[in-house]
Design a protein that fits this description.
Blueprint (H helix, E strand, L loop, with lengths): L22 H8 L6 H31 L5 H21 L8 H6 L1 E5 L8 H16 L3 H4 L10 H6 L1 E5 L5 H26 L5 H28 L6 H7 L3 H11 L6 E4 L4 E6 L7 E6 L1
Antiparallel strand pairs: 1-2, 3-4, 4-5
Helix pairs in contact: 2-3, 2-8, 3-5, 10-11
C-alpha cells in the first residue's frame, strides 16, 4: 500500500481523519481568478478620486487665495501636469512589489506579471501607469479592450506586461454587488462623456433651460392678464411684477432662471415677445412670443 493512514482511536469522540486530496481538488484551490471588468473599473474610480479630487481642490484653493486669478496659462498647465505626475507615481509605486492601491485593496484585486509568475517590477509598473493615458487618449478604447480579452486585460496591461487577479475569494452576493455597481458607474461615465465631450446637455443643464422656459411662460400669462385689465401689452417689467401678487418672490424666481443681462420685452399693439438667457453653462437663449 502506497498511502499512509493515521491510526484512529475508536474511543475518541471526535476522530480527525486526514483524507488525501485529489489532484483535481488541489488544482481547483490553486486556480487563479481574474478580476472582472466591473471590479477593475470601480477600483480605478476610487483611486482617481483619492488622488485627483483632493489635489484639484488644493489647486483651486491656491489659485483663489494666493494667486487670486492672476495666473498665466503656463501656471495652470503646470498644476495639471503636477497632479497627473502624482497619479502616475501613485499607480507605479502601488502596482509593483506586491503593493496595491487603495481602490484595488477595497475591491480585493492586485496586479501581477502577465505570466502570473510574480509581482511587477518598478519599470513595468511605470509603463503600465503611462498606459492609462494612452488608453484615455484613444477615447477610452484602451480600457474597453478588457471586454474582449480572455483575462480581462486592458491596453495598459498589455503595455506593462501585467494581468489583474483576485486577491481573495468573493461570495456570490459580493460579486453581484460589484458587478451591479460597476455597471451603474460605466453608464454614468458614458453619460458624462457624452454630455461634456459630444455636445449633449446634462440633466442639470437641461433642467435650468426648462425652468427658464417656464418662467417665460409665466411672464407671458402676466402679459395676457395685463392686456385684459388695461387693454394693452406692456414692456414695463415692474408692472408685471406687481401683477404676480408677490413681487419679491417673483423677482427671486426670475433671478434664478435668467442671466442678469439679455432680458428683453418687446410689445406691439397686438403681440409681445419676451427673450432672455437661461442660467445654464451655455447661456441658452429662450424666447416666449405671442403673435
Amino acid at each position: 500500500m502506497t498511502e499512509e493512514y493515521k491510526r484512529i482511536n475508536i474511543m475518541d469522540d471526535n476522530p480527525h481523519v486526514q483524507v488525501p486530496q485529489t489532484q483535481e481538488e488541489k488544482s481547483a484551490e490553486d486556480k487563479i481568478e481574474y478580476a472582472t471588468v466591473s471590479e477593475r473599473f470601480i477600483a480605478l474610480l476610487i483611486d482617481y478620486g483619492v488622488i485627483f479630487i483632493p489635489l484639484q481642490l488644493a489647486v483651486s484653493l491656491y489659485f483663489k487665495w494666493f494667486v487670486q486669478g492672476n495666473y498665466s496659462l503656463q501656471t495652470f498647465i503646470g498644476s495639471i501636469l503636477i497632479i497627473n505626475l502624482i497619479f502616475i507615481g501613485y499607480e507605479t509605486i502601488f502596482s509593483c512589489g506586491g503593493r496595491v492601491t487603495i481602490g484595488k485593496a477595497l475591491v480585493g484585486i492586485s496586479v501581477v506579471k502577465s505570466d502570473e509568475s510574480g509581482y511587477l517590477s518598478f519599470s513595468r509598473a511605470f509603463l503600465r501607469s503611462l498606459g492609462y493615458y494612452i488608453s484615455a487618449v484613444l477615447l477610452g478604447c484602451g480600457f474597453l479592450w478588457a471586454l474582449f480579452d480572455t483575462r480581462h486585460r486592458s491596453l495598459h496591461d498589455l503595455i506593462g506586461g501585467s494581468v489583474v487577479i483576485e486577491r481573495r475569494r468573493k461570495g456570490f452576493g459580493e460579486k453581484v454587488l460589484l458587478r451591479g455597481v460597476g455597471l451603474l458607474l460605466v453608464v454614468g461615465c458614458a453619460y458624462f462623456a457624452y454630455t461634456h465631450f459630444f455636445g449633449g446637455k446634462g440633466w442639470r443643464e437641461q433642467y435650468k433651460v426648462h425652468r427658464a422656459e417656464i418662467c417665460l411662460s409665466q411672464l407671458g400669462r402676466l402679459e395676457t392678464t395685463h392686456k385684459e385689465m388695461y387693454g394693452y401689452y406692456t414692456n414695463d417689467y415692474l408692472r408685471l411684477m406687481l401683477l404676480s401678487g408677490d413681487p419679491v418672490q417673483f423677482q427671486r424666481d426670475l433671478d434664478q432662471c435668467f442671466m442678469p443681462k439679455g432680458f428683453q420685452i418687446g410689445v406691439t399693439e397686438n403681440s409681445f415677445k419676451i427673450s432672455a438667457y437661461a442660467r445654464d453653462a451655455d447661456k441658452t437663449p429662450v424666447v416666449y412670443a405671442r403673435p
